Write a sequence for this structure.
């Protein structure tokens, strides 16, 4: 158990819909990272927040957005969903904003878009 | 970010030592080398990180030669539960950048 929690565990929705994935970092960690893992693209970094501020951005689509709240939990919002958005979405946390610091990954949310 | 090259897959037997080598020919002076392990349908888990020579922890050793153009992750006496994907990542400590996970090495441990 990494100490990072993600909800929900599974999500099935239809194309065009919007969903919100939630992540609670390990106690004391200030950074949250979001990753998408699909069979054809592998593990892709989406975005990082550090203490409420966006710190780094990766291959995140404009239809996706994220934020980190004052209690440090984070949400990833996915809208206008397409079949290709079906993937495992992981959240990770680390103590500092340094991306090379050990990142602790959550169990993931499996999103299926039908 | 330095590009890394790893074998696509490796097979081993329980109790053997496994060495996975990663090539990173264009590693920069300030880059560190990090290895993560991932089991199916789980998030990656940090294994070890190093800059030069040798680093050892309770689960693995990381060997880095003087020119740092490659590194070897060594797993002593593997068990079936070590079957996983192993990722080698290279990058400079700091902010505003990202971990780039390649395809990794699929390690299959057989009994």
């Amino acid at each position: 158990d990494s100490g990072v929690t993600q909800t929900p565990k599974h999500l099935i929705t239809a194309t065009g819909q919007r969903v919100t994935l939630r992540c609670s970092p390990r106690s004391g960690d200030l950074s949250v990272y979001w990753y998408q893992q699909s069979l054809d693209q592998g593990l892709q970094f989406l975005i990082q927040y550090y203490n409420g501020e966006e710190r780094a951005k990766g291959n995140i689509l404009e239809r996706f957005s994220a934020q980190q709240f004052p209690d440090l939990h984070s949400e990833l919002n996915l809208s206008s969903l397409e079949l290709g958005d079906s993937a495992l979405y992981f959240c990770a946390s680390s103590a500092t904003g340094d991306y090379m610091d050990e990142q602790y990954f959550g169990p993931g949310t499996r999103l299926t878009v039908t | 970010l330095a590009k890394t090259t790893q074998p696509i897959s490796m097979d081993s037997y329980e109790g053997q030592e496994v060495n996975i080598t990663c090539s990173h020919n264009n590693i920069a002076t300030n880059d560190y080398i990090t290895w993560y392990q991932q089991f199916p349908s789980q998030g990656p888990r940090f294994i070890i990180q190093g800059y030069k020579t040798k680093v050892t922890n309770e689960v693995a050793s990381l060997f880095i030669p003087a020119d740092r153009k490659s590194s070897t992750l060594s797993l002593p006496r593997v068990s079936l539960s070590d079957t996983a994907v192993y990722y080698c990542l290279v990058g400079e400590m700091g902010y505003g950048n990202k971990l780039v996970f390649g395809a990794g090495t699929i390690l299959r441990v057989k009994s």
The radius of gyration of chain A is 13 Å.
